[in-house]
Amino acid sequence: MFDINTVIRPSIKNIKSYHVWRDIFLDKENILFLDNCENNYGSPLGKGQERYPSSSQATLKIKLAAFKQLSPKQLVLGNGSDELIDLLMRAFCEPTKDAILISEPTFGMFRIYAQLNNIEVINVPLLQHTFLYDLSAIQNAITPHTKLIFICSPNNPTGSSLPLNELIQLAKNVKGIVVVDEAYIDFSSHPSALTLLNELPNLVVLQTFSKAWGLAGLRLGVAYAHEAIIEVLNTIRPPFNISLFTQQQISLALDKAEVRLAFIESILSDRKKLSALLPTFSFVKRVVPSDANFLMIEVNDAERLCAYLQAHSILISNRSSLLNCNNFVRISIGTTAENLRLLNVLAQLDANPNVT
User: Fold this and answer.
1) 258-351 sits in which CATH class?
2) What integer pLDDT is reported at residue 112 of this predicted model?
3) Which of 44, 76, 126, 347 has the greatest number of CB atoms lying within 10 Å of its CB?
């Protein structure tokens, strides 16, 4: 049985959250704000930006929770999912003592934040050819000091996913917290792990507005979890971590969710076309099945392919430095016109292998 008191750092238990009591007055008229050392004349941009944003982010949380059919107490907002990953480690992992578990190749920030926080990283690699999760090996590698198990599903850079039945099996058999990064879930045929929140008290689901929503510039990530975990994260997050502009713009985007659905439909259609056409090129060895808005491709010479495309003003990602990914590249699904341009340039290389 999961007990949050066995995973939270002792020093965190005694921290009282920084309470910004003025939040309840932000939308009221005729309030004279002389409490937070702001510039009440305004700014070079005019009036409206001189106030610190809502620390509770209550208005946006209520709207987002309704959109996800959850309680506002089941989510915390971060300056991108990166901040939330860092908060999870600082909340639950004691430096030099505890560990996280990851399965590489995966999102590189898991390892980087562990290193920044002086936390051990246990790596249970994805199965070499299929890039699927090795659930048995993961469970065997967990120790009493493994506080966080990170599952990126769909995984970056492979596009592979962990089925929910395997996730349930994992979460029910560990005493630590299972963190599922669902940055690419909108492009997957698999259901979201959000459906398991009420069943699994040790589950955290990370989602973002950077991918399907097309709002990477606003830097908003969301962690969904049991109220007890959210309360801990809210205690240690910076009080003004989400800007006023971001809160306003995300709220507007939620009112236009149907636009996002149209984007997803186009991306999935083009992903299917690229998956079928890319293997026809002589330098492509295989295309890894993907649940995300990208394809990972094994090629004859990744470095040469990337250089060739860059010379034609097309950027793709060389993943060769990652575990078991030598001569693999990751190609994001662009617009239909952009994908056609990519295919045309690749066709030129296929017809003239010595071209530069």
Assistant:
1) alpha beta
2) 98
3) 76
